[in-house]
Model the fold of this input.
Amino acid sequence: MIMRKQIVVGNWKMNGSRVTNEILVSHVINDVNENVDVECVICVPFPFLGQVQTLVKNSELSLGAQNVSDQVKGAFTGEVSASMLTEFGCKFVILGHSERRMYNLENDVLIGQKARSAIANGLTPIICLGESLEEREAGDTKAIIKRQLHGALGEVGHESLERCIFAYEPIWAIGTGKTAKPEAAQEVHRFIREEITHIDNYAGQQVRIIYGGSVKSDNAFELFSNDDIDGGLVGGASLSGEDFKKIYLAAKQKNK
Ligand code: PGA
Done:
């Protein structure tokens, strides 16, 4: 069995300030340095990239952004390019988060184009997939995930599949305190892996698929201990240094 390196990603969303960022980062940085067998990333708002780049310098804590343009440069007011992100030390970028799909009307094709642009600049896209409560109740979960996955991959190109991380984030579990039951999450993760395996067997074994949606310190281990769950994408709980640290350490336990 291939051992995939576990990864825990904090998604700060539109939160933070210069003062609180410093406190938050100082809370987790030492544990991350001591436990290099699990990767740890924080995805921060654009204006804080420079500050947090300095804070994480010479540490094992990696930096990411929460969005990127699909375009290289030019007259795109308000947009940020992938090369700009790399200048600030970003290694990862979250794409296709349900909040961006909902509030910014991002679709599968655009998300795939953004991922392609990220990969071309050496960034690892973390592509979010997930169904709404209505879609789940209608029994459409797998069909939705399949559409989102293949829609994005059509743009990324199958040869770059291995450069992506996927995050399964059921919309009804985000910020609601309702976590998907570990078995239910595992079932969807397995499905995503099978879909990828159909395209490329090796990539199917290699690609990391992380879970997001009300991951907390008290449910993280139960979720992460499933075979096809390779870590987590953590929103609310990543804003507490203590909680995020515990979630990070829960991912480490899986390797034992
Ligand atoms: P949550 O958010 O952990 O607050 O549910 C997860 C996410 O939206 O990435």
